[in-house]
Please model this.
Amino acid sequence: MKSVFKGSMPWILGLVAVWGLEFGVADALDPYFFMILMYAGINIILAVSLNLVNGFTGQFSMGHAGFMSVGGYAAAYLSLLVEQSNPEFMATGLGQTVVLLGCLLAGGLLAAGAGYLVGLPSLRLRGDYLAIVTLGFGEIIRVVILNIEAIGGPRGLPNIPALASFGWLYTWVVITVYFVWRIVRSARGRAFMAVREDEIAAESMGVNTTKMKVSAFVIGAFFAGVAGGLFAHYLRYLNPQAFDFNKSFEIIIMVVLGGMGSVTGSVVAAVFLTFIREALRYLKDSGFTQLDYRMVIYSLMLIVLMLTRPNGIFGTKELRDLLPRSWRRKLDEDRFDGGAKA
Amino acid sequence: MLEFIQHLVNGLSLGSIYALIALGYTMVFGILQLINFAHGEVYMIGAFIGYYFARWIGFNQDPSLWALLSTLSVSMIGCALIGFLIERLAYRPLRKSPRINILITAVGVSLFLQFSGQLVFGSDPKFFPQVFQPSGDWSIGELKINPLQVSVFVISLVLMAILQFVIFRTRLGRAMRAVSFSHDHASLMGIPTNKIISATFMLGSALAGAGGVLVGLVYPKIEPLMGTMPGLKAFVAAVLGGIGNVTGAVVGALFLGLAESLVVGYWAPTFRDALAFAILILVLLFKPTGLFGTNRTEKV
Model:
């Protein structure tokens, strides 16, 4: 019992901190800063989940925004339904929580289903082809949403209940990071990485590469769907144009910048890029420049990164690898002791 | 029936523009096994070079075939230069790195050109000057054919014929085919591989530039993000025809153009963009080598 508790300590602390902030200071924050924090959280979920597919499993997916939109629309549609049919239930705090979690899970599962569909071609395709097929799937999802009148079609879906609080959003951030962190350290995670390093060698070692690739897609898509649901319930408005391939590229840039195969790298890059984006918006708004340099800078960053440091800032290292060796040893000891006793 | 033929005409003229772009994709893929994502953006730049050149000379006051041809050649030369720079600055330093890095770079170059295009040209759509106005409407019975569309089709065919000649009848073409067969062997035979790769990029980009001008003629609204979709669709066309195969790219592009104009005509215009990707997924799942592609077995 003690060992389980020990390994989970940082995560539990994280959750405590999230809810402490929620009840302590979230309301007192500057609304603009608060908004950036919320977007940063959504971007962390997106980047970390995409990293599982692109970084750890080596399947270059360019359709993450598609999964996000599936989850977002599904969750938003469901919660709108509940609000219409049962407004009293939605007025209570408990009701809101239940509806939010239910809708997020439903959206995530639907996105996971889409991820399964997209993952299937990855059995036969690799590299560039897979990239462009996932991009194509993302676009197809967008066009399909554009043509469904029930969810607003091209007009978008407005008036989604504002259910995503700071606490719940960052709870999902902690869950996502925890889940991905643990899975890449499990047997399955090793199998993911084996697929990335050499598919044929992995197969000859008995790794079911098909299953690994598809499951990476499904897990990645699930969390992207949850992120979409959170996005919908925070912004309260969805528009298919928001999920075009530029959105996918934005998430890819976070993953690549942070390092393909580094969970903490993705977290840092997601936060960094969210803040950079707002800083650039500030430059534009303050009249310093009339032009939108954001995407130019992002894309230059990608090119320069590939030319000079192709593994991203962190490579496959994690933040804790930057700690002094003695600290790291302490952390490792804790973990391995726990494992042995259990 | 009349309507159907009208859609066919539209489809062929659209398809011939896709073909010009698809040729660049397929040539670059043939020689480097690289999907040059930035190719659609080269096409966009081609349209803008044509736009500025034609306005600078003042061709819109004085449309003629000569005006069209000179706009075409200027934009082709400009695009060849851009293609050369892209290869030299972004792709060549990475020639030996893992495929995924080159892919990311290609995506980066594509985004960079799109958004610096917005900075340089402005993000508002511009109207391409009428550099060429064939007189009157040609009509066969009740069928009206826009002579511009016919000119686009004819010019594309001529350019493709020239390309065929270059690839199969000249020393440069022979060298290109040799390099696409094997870099190492070609360079052992004394072929300057790097120069040939540059030449391939320039040739492909020039064709994309021509596509940009021609599209400006028929659909005169041009803007910096116009290249993405046609670029991706042209890639689909190249895959459909069997990537690396020049004839295949043309056939695939014409097929895609026709299919699109029929979907727009008989079903829903909004599904137009999804069609190409649906075709792509089906082709890659059931016949990954495309219509004319050769099968490459993967070796351990």
Notes: Chain A has 14 helices and no strands. The CA atoms of residues 306 and 312 of chain A lie 8 Å apart.
